[in-house]
Amino acid sequence: MAGYDDRDGKIWMDGTLVEWRDANVHILSHALHYASSVFEGERCYDGKVFKSREHSKRLLKSGELMDMDIPYTVDQIEAAKKQVLDVNGLTNAYVRVLAFRGAGEDMGVAASRNPIRMAVTAWEWGNYYGDAKMKGAKLDIAKWKRPSPETIPVAAKAAGLYMICTMSKHAAEAKGCSDAMFLDYRGYVAEATGANIFFVKDGEVHTPLPDAILNGLTRQSVIGMLKDRQIKVHERHIMPEELEGFEQCWLTGSAAEVTPVGQIGDYHFEVGALTREMSDAYEKLVRS
Question: What does this protein do (predicted)?
Answer without folding.
Answer: Acts on leucine, isoleucine and valine.
